[in-house]
Amino acid sequence: MSSTNRITKPHEIVERALELSTADGCVVIADEGSSANLRWAGNALTTNGVTRSRTLTVIATVDGKEGTASGVVSRSAVTADDLEPLIRAAEAAARGAGPAEDAQQLVTGTPASPDFTDAPAETSSAVFADFAPALGEAFARAREGGRELYGFANHELVSTYVGTSTGLRLRHDQPNGTLELNAKSPDRQRSAWAGRSTRDFKDVDPTVLDAELAVRLGWAERKIDLPAGRYETLLPPTAVADLLIYQMWSAAARDAVEGRTVFSKPGGGTRLGEKLSELPLSLRSDPNAPGLESAPFVIAHSSGDDASVFDNGLPVPATEWIADGHLNRLSTTRHTAGLTGMQLSPGFGNLILDAGGEKSLDEMVAATERGLLLTCLWYIREVDPATLLLTGLTRDGVYLVENGQVVGEVNNFRFNESPVDLLSRASEAGRTEKTLPREWSDWFTRAAMPALRIPDFNMSSVSKGV
Q1: Is 264 helix (H, G, I), strand (E, B) or coil?
Q2: pLDDT of 3 over the 50 cut
């Protein structure tokens, strides 16, 4: 067997791919992933499993008379024998493409990761060693309480290796865990949901979530019909996260400068520096935030409004997007920072909202004279990019609060709101806590948010959904 055929380790594949490249520049990204999961229904485990994956992305750059072009090709389950065809495909794509608008010199100067040549990190069913027995206890408690638990736990661990023809050798291990738990009454007429994000399943307790859901199912024993309208509403951290993640996805500097987003100023320019909230809100990202750690350098498998393949390996600093209620930054690549004259602010791997609040959601409920308490939002879609008007549905429990007490469950609603407008109207923020965004949990899980009190949340119509 030749030495080439024995190349199986991620860093070896990256090095070999760079050796094979004949392009003017080359970036190779190897993603080695593993996942473990548990699923359950009716208070009993149904399935469990462990999977492995490998994806290799090659970005070839070719300098021509009219500028630098790039070609990007990604393939799964790549072996040593697949490398040369993959490299040649990326080079052919680059030579067949026109000059890349976002072309920049490939990043240099970042110190190599000391573990670049180490084997990839892997998860396994052992991650559930403490969680699984607690889940069994939750099943027993649910049976005794006359409720049924459904849901899943998933843990992923992705080791990403980035190598470039300019000498970068970087690696990042990203753990990502989600727990979603539904409790239902035996007649399926009542349903409640709770979710958590975690890095290792050591900080989540399904018995605690089950107890929370039991309370909510009790609230739902009394049904109250309410019409559409504007209501004082308590948005829990998960709902706040779903809305602000969408806001950040819409915060590209170039789009704002070109007048296409909610952050564009009428008549030209952007809303940078504008006061967005009377509350002292700070919306920030920090790769080193405890419990929410994310990649400290850019990992870009493709180029878009807020990412550039030419920026791979660029350090990602802590960034305050909103500072003391004022819009402070919009996301930029090196290319769009140059176009707009704004500070370089690479994309975000986590999102943290803080307003200095200290109250728990329960304490905010106790201070409510009359209003609605939501569980979560789902099926969120954009209606108008100019105002970032979003629509969506409430799900798994909307409760009426009167004189500081939950008095029953009301019908679901369709809402129409802009997260930017919500920040301007929010009258109170609770304490910040880690949360799982329910709508975006397949794409983004690392968030910490407070509950928000909105005096006039727009429930635009009654929904018959669950």
Answers
A1: strand
A2: no
Tokens 């024995």 belong to residue:
6
Cα separation, 317 vs 306, whole angstroms: 15
Q: If DSSP codes are grouped into helix, strand and coil, which group holds residue 20?
A: helix
Location of structure tokens 């109170």: 428
For residue 56, the number of C-alpha atoms closer than 13 Å in the C-beta half-sphere is: 29
Which pLDDT score is estimated for 423? 98
Q: Give how far Cα 317 sits from Cα of 296, 298, 345, Å.
A: 7, 10, 8
Q: Running DSSP on this structure, what letter comes out for residue 43?
A: T
By the 8 A CB rule, do 160 and 29 touch? Answer: yes
Backbone CA torsion sign across 314, 316, 317, 319: positive
Model confidence, pTM = 0.95
pLDDT of 310: 98
Interior/surface letters 267-302, b for 16+ CB within 10 angstroms, e for the rest: eeebbbeeebbebebbbbbbbebeebbbbbbbbbbe
223-265, pLDDT tens digit by residue?
A: 999 999 999 999 999 999 999 999 999 999 999 999 999 999 9
Residues 6+ apart with CB under 8 A from 118: 11, 171
pLDDT at residue 7 in the model:
66
Looking at the chain, the whole-number percentage of residues with pLDDT higher than 90 is 94
pLDDT attached to residue 1: 39
CA distance 24 to 137: 59
Burial 380-410 (b: 16+ CB within 10 A, else e): beeeeeeebbbbbbbbbbbbbbeeeebeebb
The C-alpha atoms of residue 77 and residue 440 are separated, in whole angstroms, by 27
